Amino acid sequence: MTDPLGHLVEFIDKNRVILGLVLSNKKGRLGLWTAQDRQAALPQQRVLLMTPAAVGIDAPRSLQVEYMAKVEARRESLAAGVDVVELWDLVHAESEPLSLKDLSELVFGNGQGQDGDHLSATLRALFNEHQHFRLAGNDFVPLTPEQLEQKTQQQQREASHRSEVDGAVAYLKSLPTRGPLPEPPAGLADLLAEYTIFEDEAPNVKKAKEIVALSEVGGRRQIYNLLVRMGRLRPHENLELLRDGTPVEFSPEAEAAAAVTLPFSGQDTQREDLTGLYVFTIDGAYTTDFDDALSFDPDPAGGGLLGVHITDAAATLPLGGVLDREAMVRASSLYLPDQRIPMLPPRLSEDALSLREGELRPAISCLARIDAEGRVSEYRLTRSLLRVGKRLTYDEADEMLETDPHLGGLYRTCLAIKAQRAQAGAYFLPLPEVIVGVDEQFQVWVRRVDRDGPAREMVAETAILANSLSGQYLAEKGAPALFRTQAPPREPLQEGDPSDLYLHFKQRRLLNRVELTCEPGLHSSLGVRNYTHATSPIRRYLDLVMQRQLGAALAGRPAPYSEDDLRRVALEVEPAVRRGMKLRQARQRYWLLRWLEAKGAEPLEAIVMENQVRRWQLLITDIMLLTTIPTQPGLVLEPGQKVMIRVQKADAFYDILRVGLA
User: Fold this and answer.
1) What gap in Å lies between CA 40 and CA 1, rounded to an integer?
2) Residue 486 φ/ψ, nearest 5 degrees
């Protein structure tokens, strides 16, 4: 092998061909001076081309550099004349690597191809073009046409990516701080929205992060605010909802099906006419979808005939139809502080299938004779026709208890029914309900409602009764059904003051999960057996499923669902129900944190719940929200103790809440 000392060598460094003069050679490691007037050390195996030099190693450094600059200029000039595409056309069918010498002879001819300048020119041309050949050791391999096409497409994608990134960065850097924004580059708003919603799980997260970093647009909050200015996101957008993918709008097919679904005409002669009953609804002031109504005819000796009437949505919604499929995907209506997402299109849930005041509607009615002690002496279920005579809010119903014999008798009967459940082992751990609302200016209002209000208690007790009697009816008929069972608590529950929030929170942790099963059994916390859900068919899909089973049994038809069908449907629907609950909790927390942001340092009452690892858990009683404070030397607290706290930091966007003792 030729001693490289005093030779010109060429090698690759930082993706370019470098020319150097070898000044030393120690055990295969070459000491160089490059044409760029820099010293370098190089393992000999990295040398791609070695040619004689016309300047000695002892010549002045300036002379060596001047000489190498002239050689490099000459070789680059020759390289510019090499037609790499033409060379590839000649050799791309070759299966073996081609030496630099062979390729140079094809380019320049046998007379010049082995000259150092021409060899270098070929090397430089092939490496700099880096499109049709790849370097393998000291040889070049022509790409196949397929490889060349793939490489071309990849380069086009990279060029497009670079252009998109550069355009996006230039746009973001040029934005005015106020006023309207110019039209963004195509796809930029969607890219940033996906990144804001999904963060590291976004489909194009690398591109988004590159644009954000280069444009110095800021963090996630700044990007969100920019997207609001662009009109891509709304102020206070529900990012959790978007991340979950829960459908908000109905498909065109579902809307079309709902449009041709007319309100009930009253032509079903197989239904029992209950229009002579005084029927009323009790709901919240803002409720627009009414799926249950009540009637009560009091007996002079106490108790009376109680009717729970459920809109017969199953009679209108065919199993497997487009509306049924859409409802199954949604699983339940979702009621958020700032948004309602119904399970069925509003023209059905708020009109054609809703028990609206004064409208004739088909229903499944549960009629139960209740004695003064709250015992059911007889009951029956029937496919009915009814007309709601009065729509009442909870507050209105509470005010009418003393003047309306139907409501007053119903309330006394519900208290007796509740007492019967208590004797059967039911336990009552009431917690206040926190209702959160948001006005058009995004101002948050919070109302803590006592769950034991008379009207709410009537609605709860009658629903429990109707669901348990519906389950009992299906069990007696041997029809497949979904029952909700709950094993008794892991340890005995303590009796206590109904207003003792600490006790009720603590006791609830002892409860077992409610199981969904096709086998009837005990629901321990309710104190009933054969308990199902069939009272909200326009709000909960599994209630619609059970209503289909009831309707078929009442009409003497085969059950539309077998036990295997019910298990399959429950397995598909329950995860969506749980996701909906999490979305509701997250959104409620968001607006409660916004409420706390507005409160500032105003003192708030809290209850000490328990000592956790290096922190105390507290319950903010006004809004029933759990939070924590760190343990500190000398800080002595007791579970159940009431304390006053102040918000130190509340940030709804980042879900941050820090409090301290007032």
Assistant:
1) 22
2) -150, 125
Q: Collapse the DSSP code of 475 into the 3-class scheme (helix H, G, I; strand E, B; otherwise coil) and give the result.
A: helix
Burial of residue 363 (CB within 10 Å: 0-12, 13-18, 19+) is buried
Cα 395 from chain centroid? 36
* pLDDT at residue 419, as a whole number: 96
Annotate 113-130 with b (16+ C-beta within 10 A) or e (fewer).
Answer: beebbbbbbbbbbbbbbe
- Looking at residue 288, its pLDDT comes to 94
Residue owning tokens 């995004």: 442
Phi, psi (degrees; rounded to nearest 5) at 406: -65, -50
Question: Cα(502)–Cα(642) distance, rounded to whole angstroms?
Answer: 10
Q: Which residues contact 483 (CB under 8 A, 6 or more apart)?
A: 471, 516, 517, 518, 519, 520, 521, 530, 531, 532
- Identify the band that residue 500 occupies on the pLDDT scale cut at 50, 70 and 90: confident
Q: How confident is the model at residue 1 (pLDDT cuts 50, 70, 90)?
A: low
Q: Helix %, strand %, coil % for the chain, to 5?
A: 40, 25, 35
H-helix or E-strand containing 85? helix 84-91
**Burial class of residue 108 (count of CB atoms within 10 Å of its CB; 0-12, 13-18, 19+):** buried
Confidence of residue 225 (pLDDT cuts 50, 70, 90): very high
| pLDDT for position 114 | 81
Q: Report yes or no: 258 and 348 within 8 Å, Cβ to Cβ.
A: yes
User: Is 428:508 a contact under the CB 8 Å cutoff?
Assistant: no
- Contact by Cβ (8 Å): 152, 144: no
- Within 10 angstroms of residue 597's Cβ, the number of other Cβ atoms is 16
Is the distance from CB of 363 to CB of 386 less than 8 angstroms?
Answer: yes
pTM of the model: 0.83
**What stretch of H or E contains 171?**
helix 145-173
Q: pLDDT (tens digit, 9 = 90+) per residue, 342-353?
A: 999 999 999 999
**Is-contact 119 8, C-beta < 8 A?**
no
In Å, how far are 14, 34, 128 from 17, measured between CA atoms?
8, 11, 8
Distance CA 391, CA 291 (A): 12
CA 276 to CA 188: how far, in whole Å?
Answer: 62
CA-to-CA distance for 330 and 247, rounded, in angstroms?
Answer: 7
Widest distance between CA atoms in the chain: 127
> Which residues 6+ apart lie within 8 Å of 27 measured at CB?
none
Radius of gyration of the CA atoms of the chain, in A: 39
Residues 6+ apart with CB under 8 A from 574: 331, 516
Identity of residue 412: R
Query: What is the Cα–Cα distance from 550 to 311, expressed in whole angstroms?
Result: 13
Rounded to 5 degrees, φ, ψ at 539 are: -120, -25
Residue 564 C-alpha from the chain's centroid:
30
Rounded Cα distance, 164 and 171, in Å = 10
- What does the DSSP assignment read for 174-243? T--SSSPPPPPPTTHHHHHHHHHHHGGGSTTHHHHHHHHHHHT--SHHHHHHHHHHHTSS-TT--HHHHH
Per DSSP bridges, beta strands 334-336 and 29-34 are unpaired
- Is residue 367 within 8 A of residue 305, CB to CB? The reply is yes
Q: Tell me: the pLDDT tens digits for 397-408?
A: 999 999 999 999
Cβ proximity of 480 and 514 under 8 Å: no
With contact defined as beta carbons under 8 Å apart, do 270 and 555 qualify? yes
Contact 570, 482 (CB under 8 A): yes
